[in-house]
């Protein structure tokens, strides 16, 4: 059967806003994060401590976290390296996420490192984070296909993912960065991790909806026992360094599916839709989410 409950890991404020052309004022971001928490989302990734020249949209990371104050200390933030970790530690944050690549090309484009060099960058970052008592999540990108390299072998994804977990990450989020994955591929990938000793309880699934497969892929993940799903309010998102990446799976679409399946998630759909509709107004474009459009009236 399906899991009784799942955890939705909300990435709209990070994966969503990192890719928006419009610069969103920090006070709007703060309200966005607060509204996502108020809608019942249990985990709201807030921002990234990456190089501000690489992702100018999130250059206000420190200011955002300062404004959130005590309400922000348990929200995860992305850190690629020790410099990013230092910035998070200065603010007293407790949850960080590193983000690796399953492919050589994307490691270079996203991190300015070779495939092997990325681990050398992450190792001291995770060591120091754990020594300071922080929880570390690891993302691995291009798990289902890479815009430059094409098909990505499952063994290569498992090798990259287990290396990230072995550094000391508590959870591995498998990213379909460009949204090309399909359900059978999800089943095979989760099974390959299980065969390598990584159970579904240590995995999260991170789908982008480029090819409209995200919900179908979630169902494959549920059947395989995965209970954490990344999603983005209103379907915002995409990676600025991944050609052809579009929005993440919309949190509203995920919530609609889970409610229909009777899988508990704890999110108030009406307030989430209101939040995404409000954010769409700030961004000057309609949400791509079918559920937001059906329920939002905007
Ligand atoms: P680099 O240029 O190789 O950095 O970039 P460096 O280590 O050579 O340092 C150069 C300068 O940058 C130094 O300053 C550092 O201090 C500074 P200088 O001494 O010259 O004055 N610097 C920093 N400043 C602020 N914060 C930092 C930082 N690090 C170095 N953290 C780097 C390497 C990793 C920094 C760069 O490539 C980078 O910032 N990349 C981030 C790209 C990114 O954010 N991509 C989007 C997130 S990934 C994603 O969206 C996928 C995901 O959603 C899952 C999926 O869908 O697959 C997670
Ligand atoms: Mg992503």
TrEMBL record:
Metal-binding listed as a keyword: yes
Keyword Metal-binding: yes
Keywords: Lyase, Metal-binding
Record domain Pyruvate carboxyltransferase: where: 6-273
MF terms in GO: lyase activity
Top-level taxonomic group: Bacteria
CDD domains named among the record's database cross-references: DRE_TIM_HMGL
Family affiliation: Belongs to the HMG-CoA lyase family.
Name under which the protein is recorded: Hydroxymethylglutaryl-CoA lyase
